[in-house]
Protein: Glycosyltransferase family 2 protein
Organism: Metabacillus halosaccharovorans
Amino acid sequence: MNDPILTIVVPCYNEEEVLPETISVLLEEINYLIETNIISGKSKVLFVDDGSRDRTWSIIYKNSLESEFIHGLKLARNVGHQNALLAGLITACKTSDCVISIDADLQDDVGVIKDFMQKFSDGFDIVYGVREKRDADKFFKKATALGFYKMMQRLGVNLVYNHADFRLMSKRAVEELEKFEEVNLFLRGIVPLLGFPSTSIYYNRKERLAGDTKYPLRKMLSFAFEGITSFSVTPIRFVMLVGILSFITSLLFGTYFITLKFLGETQTGWTSLITSIWLIGGLQLIAIGLIGEYIGKVYKESKRRPRYSIDVNTLNLTQQLMERN
Ligand code: UDP
Ligand code: MG
């Protein structure tokens, strides 16, 4: 087989601080891989600007004019990491044999890309980059990440432990991924479902090169919640179980208190009354909220809106850049 054409897909949201460094590191890596005949000379890096409000796009654009290996795709608005990545993967796989997704902050080790390519030529369609150590992450992030994986596993969702979105996918794997038309996208959950030959490569995750995380606590929690509710209805069942249990408990208590009343031992009972009102009220609100979350998901999916739109002003440019080699 000829050297495979690789496209490295990098989603970027307000990344002006790291981008120049990222571009030069990735360029160097691409050049090295081409020189050593690991990948074809038609390989490239595709930066997806996810509706950034800073200079991200102008940096990408300028570099794309200077180097034939740098390509850009500008989305019309911010659609979030997962959908931006999808936009990049779908665009990239049209002109490549395989794609690798990596974050713009270079926390993932570009040095293992050659190992990814080795696995690809061994016949694997999907190669997961798995973090061996999480030294760079704060204790809190480590603990919440672990809790999340454990919970997903309990809910029956097959995730690759300690794998984020640093992975290689073959053209046919991305084409299969395209068939999953959900708007609430959680790639880490979907990719293992594709059922292609897959393997893992271990690496050390580093500190963010510059700039701030685009996943503050609020976004991280919502991402985790999204992951759970997109893949499992177990939480709804759990709510029902709690409802049934509290119903049975209230029956028992009711019988007990009524019996006491007939025996003439009237309870003052205010404390138990007020506590149970709050308890049941709270449980009901949680249950309604949870069900609302699922209904909201159905609502979003039923609208069938496109998951991303490419910026019209740059559409021609994007096409030209993609067709250039
Ligand atoms: N990102 C994106 N759109 C968003 C948020 C983030 O494309 O709405 C990109 C971001 O530029 C980065 C990647 O997603 O390349 C991961 O974000 P970040 O590094 O901030 O997340 P963390 O590593 O802290 O989990
Ligand atoms: Mg990061």
About this structure: The chain has a mean pLDDT of 89. The radius of gyration is 25 Å. Residues 11-13, 15, 50, 78, 80-81, 84, 103-105, 107, 213-215 surround uridine-5'-diphosphate (ligand 1) (CB under 6 Å). The CA atoms of residues 33 and 39 lie 6 Å apart.
